Amino acid sequence: MNSVSLFVSKHLKLIEDEHNEELNEKTKCRDQFSTSELLKKGICINKLRIINLKTGLYGRYIITFTSTSNNALASHCFTAGDILGVYHNKDRELIVSGVVTSITEANISVAIDENCDTLSQDETNYCLIKLSNDVTYRRLKNALNILNRYPTNNRASNLIAVLFGKTLSEPLCTPRLEEIKFVNKQLNDSQRESVMFALRQKEVAIIHGPPGTGKTTTLVEYVVQEILRNLRVLVCAPSNVAVDNLVEKLVENNVKNVLRLGHPARALPSSQKVSLDAVLAASDDYRLIDDIRREIDGLRKNTGAFGVRTEIKQLIKELKRREKKALSESLFKSKAIVSTLTTAASDGVLKNLLRSDCPENQFDVVVIDECSQAIEASCWIVLTFAPKCVLAGDHKQLPPTIVSEKAAKEGLEVTLMERLLDLHPQENIMRMLTIQYRMNEKIMQWSSSRFYDDKLVAHESNANSTLSDIVGSVNISPILLIDTTGCFMYELEVDDEHSKGNEGEANLVTLYIQSLIDLGVDSSTIGVITPYNLQVEMIRNRLSEKYPNLEIKSVDGFQGREKEVIILSLVRSNDRREVGFLSEYRRINVAVTRAKRHVAIICDSETVCHDSNLNSLVEYASAVGEVRSAHEYESKMKQFDDFARPEQVKCKTAKPTKRNRDNTNRTTVKPSKTTAEHKQQISEDELKRRENIKQKYLKIVSNFVNSVDTRYSFPKNLSSFERRFVHEISEQFDLCHVSKGENKDRIIEIWKPTDCECTPQSTCSSTEEVVTPKPCISLEEDEIDEKLSIKKEAENISKTSQKKTKPKQKVKAMKENGNVKVKNLSEQLKTTDEENIDELIATVKKMDSVCSFENCKSKVSVLGLNCQFCKRRFCLSHSMPEIHGCGDDVRALARSVARKEGKLYPGTGVPTKKCDSVRHAQLQRLLNKKVDELSDKRKPKRK
């Protein structure tokens, strides 16, 4: 079998798997879910009545439904071209099926081929449910079979050969091409080069358009140039929205003879006037066609009369003949035909044009926009129509939507654009647009460096654009990171694995948007993006009623869109550090690059940073943007206590980790316990196991110290718990130690320090943690700044300690004990000259690794806590402020909180969080069970 036959046989199987999966999913939804559940999923619209029934193209019935309450239709995911079923609400019995032709806010129109006498305009309770699209599957299958049987000497034969590996032909080099005058004078150099490249190519050209680089503008200029050369162009895209964008741009450029097949997704005048219906309405035969349709409509209202059905059939036959003639004339006159990929199938409207023997009626070029969002099989619906194709898209943004995971893994998700870039040298087949006109330079730079080889350049008009340009009162960085780490804002668990939510993040989004609007930012300029539908629903519950112009959508809903402000909620926060499909880098790339002036990222960095791309985003935002902790918003969270959770939510916390799965009643949201309390809960077997592990690695490290070896690497299979022991033991032996790598490749390495070197031989990545017990004697230039900063820090500590007010006698004694090391350091600093600064650095580093409490020698490099008042590090035993001498400060904080809240709280002075009712009931059952067990033990045993 040749490469084409192998490709066809493989993809026939894959699209069959995909179709079956889609069919099973839709059938399961219809059979298992109630109407209310289908409404929530957006695949059902109920309580409808018929307001119009007329004859459409080829004699089809066009039925228009509206809400029985005359209000806007319920929220749904129907689009033009979708297959749906018409049902009675009461019995869920299918009456007829049809295709959505148009949708407005209040109405939905459906085209039906079969007889619809059973539908009545008097009936007031119809229901529409989305069905699986058999038409698309049949057209995909037919296109692949045509490809497999395509003659070797036909118009598209050479193109097919190139798309399956044949070397590209030499580009055209004619004087006529060099004299081209661009219609759009605003094109930049990379756009002009891409247009010229596409014109010169004989078989295939790819225009790679990263976010905001004007890909559609460039593509339209290419189409215009081909039309000026008197060529016929078929322009396609996977979705109706993308097709409408192309039509709008073509009309703006005054392109004549444009024809838009299918039904526009948006009611734009530019799209409507070049639609097929509008063009037919302007034809010479339209008046007669319209008269025949009206006559058919009148007869259909009187179907009971004798001979009426026969007359209707004859009129429909005449109608089809005249419509076919008018349609053919419109197609032959059009130089640019614009359509979705599936609408352009050879068995559809284009069949009259494709079957023409006249070469002038054939297509010269096929253009596919957003090619990276279409499966390759759908591209083959149109690729055999012409000897040349031009593809445009960005394979670093959203991939095609595929239901079957099996089909996706086996190759269905690999797009034509990706396959060609792997098949041919990129410089021979692709040109990339490099000037972006959307984002502030700081927002752009992460995406550019991570996905586009640092080639993107922000245009001067938007490079430094900020929110202050449109709202003077707003002075904020283009990038903001709000980190929820340590704030117990865990994700919610639901039955649907593909939908997750996070109440804490939803509340933060609401608070932050409210603050922006209070400063004067228009709600219509703000967009909220989150990967999960449940989170979309939760945020809408909090904001949509108050701000109806605020857009809150999933990543897919914002593809190709832009907003001045984008708020991104990443949702995932769990002890397992799982990020799910957030690891799909293309989704994050799309989400971040929708923002023009400001992007706010709300996430749990401890969870999301386990993915390399998300980790790079968090690190970049921390480096160039503003970072806030969710703790700053904690005092305002009470207002959200009354918000009801969605019905599908099971519990408030994430699933327990593997090590805690035996204790199913334990919730992950708990305040941290003291070491003593924790040890009480550890069993004797567990303590023995830990001691054995510690002795095992103590022996390994001890043998290494006594050996002649200078370096030792531990295997990859060590757990984080075992690596912690190795770090602690290495500290005891004054060894250098480092953890490097990520996830399963993370290892720990130890080595003996030398007089001149105390760093690993290989360069460490940003994720490595290096601990060195001794400072280097020989200094490099880049170490001088570090020394000076340490010296300055020591001076600040000294000044701070001198400025402290005198407390009570008991506390004073405790503070003196705690500050002895700092005072010694201060005195040492005064007597240290520049040459002996190494000794001072060694002292500071040693202080950082040992508890700051006097006479305490506990190591705190791995386990230790920083005091928020004196900023020094203590072991767990001395970490409480009252113990090491900061008692006055913590009491002052408690008084401050009491003044602000108007209430005195016990303990730390911080208000306790409202107890979760589910958790409270769970704990109550555990308590009752424990009491019963203890009561049974106290009963006297029978003798």
For the residues shown, what is the average pLDDT? 80
Q: What share of the residues lie within helices?
A: 40-55%
Tell me the number of helical segments per DSSP (H or I, 4 or more residues long).
32
Oligomer: single chain
The major beta sheet can be summarized as: 7 strands, parallel
Share of residues in strands: 5-15%
Give the low-confidence spans.
651-682, 755-794, 797-818
Name of the CATH first level of the largest domain: Alpha Beta
How many beta-strand runs?
Answer: 29
- Derived structural class: alpha/beta
CATH architecture of the largest domain: 3-Layer(aba) Sandwich
CATH superfamily of the largest domain: P-loop containing nucleotide triphosphate hydrolases
Shape: globular
Strand order of the largest sheet: 9-10-8-11-12-7-13
Output the CATH topology of the largest domain: Rossmann fold
Radius of gyration: 35 Å
Number of discrete domains: 6
Note the gap between the termini.
87 Å
Describe this structure in words.
The chain is of the alpha/beta class. It has 6 domains: 100 residues, Elongation Factor Tu (Ef-tu), domain 3; 206 residues, 3-Layer(aba) Sandwich (Rossmann fold); 54 residues; 192 residues, Rossmann fold; 91 residues, 2-Layer Sandwich (Ribosomal Protein S8, Chain: A, domain 1); 109 residues, no CATH class. The strands form 7 sheets. A 7-stranded parallel beta sheet has the order 9-10-8-11-12-7-13, sandwiched between helices. The chain has a 6-stranded antiparallel beta barrel with strand order 1-2-5-4-3-6. It has a 6-stranded parallel beta sheet with strand order 19-18-20-21-16-22, with helices on both faces. A hairpin with a 6-residue loop joins strand 25 and strand 26. The radius of gyration is 35 Å and the shape is globular. Belongs to the DNA2/NAM7 helicase family.
